Amino acid sequence: MTENNTYEVVVVGGGAAGLSAALVLGRARRRTLVVDAGEPRNTPSAHMHGYLSRDGMSPAGFLAVGRQEIARYGVELVRDRAVDAGRDGSGFAVALAGGGAVRARQLVIATGLKDELPPVPGLAERFGRDVVHCPYCHGWEARDLPTGVLAISPLGVHQALMVTQWSKDVRLFLHEVSESELTDDDRRRLAAAGVTVVPGKVAELVVADDRLRGVRLAGDAPSGGGTPHACEVLYAAPRAVPNNDLLLRLGADMRETPFGTYPVIDERGLTSVPGLWAAGNASGFAEQVINAASRGYRAGAAINGELLMADLDAGVRV
Known about the structure:
This protein is of the alpha/beta class. 26% of the residues lie in helices and 28% in strands. It folds into two domains: 6-115 and 239-313, FAD/NAD(P)-binding domain (3-Layer(bba) Sandwich), CATH 3.50.50; 118-236, FAD/NAD(P)-binding domain (3-Layer(bba) Sandwich).
């Protein structure tokens, strides 16, 4: 970061959304800073999928390439955490954990979200390996394996049905869902898809030779190496916790969803606060890497246009 701490745009978050916005802005010759705390959501995964031309690339490798690309266009990146933000005249001031503050005419929040896993012993240690959350991300690699789905809400039924596209040996562990919560349509579809419904709460994972072998329910007695309910991959939907603190501090209008609290934005990513933008998983739960990058690109292009018109309207030669 240079001694001059005033930028045209500050991007908080150095994931796919933030780097994509910064790339567009750098190529538009905008003085841009990315503040990156270095905590990408997909760190547990060895590979990312579904991103055309980057399928199978490691998340860390993807971000490393992105950082190299933005540097070519003069975008600065600082490894730090934005701990506060407020209005500063017509722009914004962002306080950093490492000390000091940076200022910007426009501010992009691309801070993503955190995944909170169900408190099942052994689950977190295997997340991103054979405990996964998204069939579009991991289904091909887990195809045709004995598969379990851990239900923490009735939405687990939908996930179990989706997973049958990749495996015909699927067990739905109801876990935090009672059988009475299943609708007649749920039961009909699960039966039609060949999903085995297993009532009861999952107590632990069974792992041998560093591979998932199955799960035990709370009522199952441990039996040496025995596995009461076999599965080699387990889908477990985490609870999404948006990193929305800066958006709240800045007074952005928010909306409640089944997956957390997110800002109200227009199609470009602009919040209710002029000059404040949200992109990636800071703007919604379902943004995969490719969607997040697209959101960042769209916000970056819109911001450049906003700055151009503001300068022209102010009589500034651009």
